[in-house]
Amino acid sequence: MNSKILLLLIASLLSAYSYASEKKIYTWKDKNGVLVFSDTPRSGAKEVKLTSQDLNMPATNTDILNTPTPPAAAAFSIAISAPEHNQTVRENTGSVYVTTRITPRFEQDFTIVLFVNGTSYGPPSDSSTFALRDVARGEHVLQAKLYNKNNQVIAVSPKSIFFMHRKGLNFAN
Predict the structure, then answer these.
(1) Number of neighbours of residue 113 by Cβ within 10 angstroms
(2) Domain annotation covers residue 22
(3) Does residue 104 have a cis peptide bond before it, meaning omega lies within 30 degrees of 0?
(4) pLDDT by residue (tens digit) across 29-57?
(5) What is the pLDDT of residues 75-100, one digit of tens each?
(6) 39 phi and psi, to 5 degrees?
């Protein structure tokens, strides 16, 4: 029984080998002068002799392709967009709305601290808009700092100046 299986295996290997060696390719030019390749012979066709050469390339270390590169930390910036730099705000109640702009975008767990004339205006906020009340007449300097979730400063705005113009009170005796 084992000899029959062995004989069958040898016969199948020999037939596969002989089939591969019998494969031939023919070439000819058609009526338009185009070179045609085929495995079917035709009158006037020439057999193409194939040579098999083992092409060996040196092994290349591809480990660099598998190492993930950590995404670059986004460089954040913050700026005061309102009021505009050197803008005069005319508001008799002394109310001013300060708006900041963060790029690339404001992320969760970030906070902003607004500084008015060098002093922080309230606790850190998760909003980019601040409402200042009862601002005195005159020149005021604004600056904002952006903090990440670890309470580290990641961006500081340029200083922005605005002028509060309020109607003065005249007392006549």
Answers:
(1) 17
(2) no
(3) yes
(4) 888 888 888 888 888 888 887 766 666 77
(5) 888 999 999 999 999 988 999 999 99
(6) -95, 5
Q: Is residue 43 part of a domain?
A: no
DSSP the chain: -HHHHHHHHHHHHHHHHHHHHH--EEEEE-TTS-EEEESS--TT-EEEPP------------HHHHSPPPPPPP--EEEEEESPTTEEEE-TT--EEEEEEEES-PPTT-EEEEEETTEE-SS-BS-SEEEE-SPPSEEEEEEEEEE-TTS-EEEEPPPEEEEEE-PPP----
Domain ranges, residue 89: 77-165
